[in-house]
Amino acid sequence: DTSACVPAADAKMGWVAVCALREVGREPVRHSLPDGTDIVLIRHGGRLLAMSNSCPHKKASLHRSGDIEDLGGDLGLCLRCPKHKSKFGGGLFVSFATGKCTTRRQCSRSDGVAAWAVPTYQTKEDDGVIFVRRLAEHAAPEPAPAAPTRAAADEQHARLLAAKLLRIRALSPDSDEYTLQLVEERDRAAFAQEPAAMWHLWLAMGGVSREYTPTSTSEDTTRSGLITLVIKLYSKGEMSDQLARAAIGDLAAVSPPRVTLRIPAFDLAPTPRGLTFNLLAGGTGVAPCLQFLRRAKAAAACVQMLYSCWTLEDALLAAELEDLAASWPERGFRYAYVLTREKDRAVLVDAREPKRSRTGGAAAVRGRRIDAAMMREHLVDRRQDAVVMTVVSGPSGFNARCEELVRRNLTPEERGEVVVLDA
């Protein structure tokens, strides 16, 4: 029963405890409020979003929808009503950001649908519990940029930043590196300053847009106009389909940098000494961690990281991690690979490339997932100060499991603030 978890001050402000944080991931889930209202929640881009679970047309439960799509503009992330997948010009969509309804394509009922809306909710997390309150005067989440439809690509490209696909390089069996070149030199100024220690942009192609964390720096883009993204391809992903059909020279659109996570200590002048952080990365979730590591190195912070992937061949950005570890002040960065589908062998990862070890001798654990003993061995260092923050970055299942492990097995001094970022 989460109702007993609501502090008196929060209750007066309309906040209601809903469920444990670990219960909400990247798929929509249903929960009931104490007054009987059904809401649907989802985690997207590091944010928790919530709205009424009832479609305004025939009261279908929106959480049953497997169709989650970013429609851009004010609408942002939307759910398609499970009863109207083909009607209403390709489906009736409901926006988490505004509660407004829309159709995929213009049809005879589009104007009427645009007048429909459902209640939306502000969300927050405290001590592993999700709280919501009905949005009225409260600000809605920042909308995603509009993705260009095929018919309006030129218009959308004008509002975003036009870019062309320059290179594609395979990094692992299911992940590629995409290099984009900004078309207009004047657009490079949008990247002149990183908005936060961790930031992202939106990539829009063929009517689909998604958030990605560049592995290139803002300085790289300002100087050369190049943007590098590491993207995992899925068999049924809409953006994956667009990328699979993409050819060198194809046009896309990107947004200017958007804030993913601010690290207040990094913004202080001078930066405090002795800062300590934990990172747990899964799959392509290592890309935001790479961005974080660059800022942490500049601050001479101490960082411990566990990076989980299936096999050594699936490890991404290994050379970049090796370079950081080798050049970090006072050897303040240490990391270990967790290779869940490899059998246990040596303590150190073998060199797979004759001229350079892919992991630089980093410790590796094979045939296991991250567990409590592993975290205590690789993340807890009694010689260092209390941890400022633990960042978990990966797929939703990985994130939920690791967050629970962190909160259950590390003391507040060993974990600091816990932040979860969906990759």
Describe the structure.
- Mean pLDDT is 83; it is low at 137-158 and 346-359.
- The chain is built from 11 helices and 23 strands.
- The longest helix is centred in the last third of the chain and has 14 residues, at 396-409.
- The protein is an alpha+beta fold and 423 residues long.
- Helix 8 links the parallel strand 19 and strand 20.
- Strands 11, 12, 13, 14, 15, 16 and 17 form a 7-stranded antiparallel sheet that branches. A 6-stranded antiparallel sheet has the order 1-10-9-4-3-2, with no helix packed on it. The chain has a 6-stranded parallel sheet with strand order 21-20-19-18-22-23, sandwiched between helices.
